[in-house]
Amino acid sequence: MSSTIILYDIPGNAVKTQAWSPNTWKARFALNMKGLPYKTIGAEHTGVLDGKPHYTLPVIHDTTTGAVISESYKIAQYLDKTYPSAPRIIPAGTDALQRMFTEVLSSKVGKLVFLICGYPSMVQLPPRSLEYFSRTREAIFGKPVKELLADSERGKVWKTVIDSFGEVGKWMDANGKGKVFVMGDVPSFADGAIASQIVWMKTVLGMESVEWKDLMMADEGRWAKFAEEMNKWEFVDEEGLKSVV
């Protein structure tokens, strides 16, 4: 089947695949989990896409239907509605819960992970994207990204990250001890959201980092097992990201 969907992603230089952004990884996991063919095109993080103002990625363009959708959750909703024969990633009747889980995860885990990963994410960007990322984040936080986390606070913040992952794990234990996914035995968008945070850390911090090794050992290896299960959907169209618009 030929690719009819284009996924616009933010290329970086941290790893060979260039895919690093947790937001675009949520959309990528959605596409991969549904088994839909698609092509990746790199888009500079500059607020402009194809010559038009655009301030958020990911974006998909479905060339079959003509639809252009931004934001990972809306992309997942669109994919489930438009391609119902592929596995659902937002199971019927769980839309509100999936959305709520994703928002809480972003608030509880994502904001803390940004303190750890924000600066290494920024410095591995191409020049135009780096300038835009630096300028817009400084406007949001009121200080340069490099100054968001003092070295003396890093250990304390990282412990809070691990504790927050532990709390997420306790939520998942409501399905029964040993269940890997948020919904028990069935992977869903919520799992892609968790995996996106994990891939982000692995990509910009590296698998030899203290933080990565710590996370893989946390909660009796729960997140190592989770990452292993999600690995089957953790793949990238490497050639696509090399062509940047």
TrEMBL record:
Family annotation (Pfam families): GST_C_7 (PF22041), GST_N_3 (PF13417)
GST N-terminal domain segment(s): 1-87
Gene3D superfamilies: 1.20.1050.10, Glutaredoxin
UniProt cross-references to SUPFAM superfamilies, sorted A to Z: GST C-terminal domain-like (SSF47616), Thioredoxin-like (SSF52833)
InterPro entries: Glutathione-S-Trfase_C_sf (IPR036282), Glutathione_S-Trfase_N (IPR004045), GST_UstS-like_C (IPR054416), Thioredoxin-like_sf (IPR036249)
Residues annotated as signal peptide: none
The name this protein goes by in its record: GST N-terminal domain-containing protein
Protein's organism: Bondarzewia mesenterica
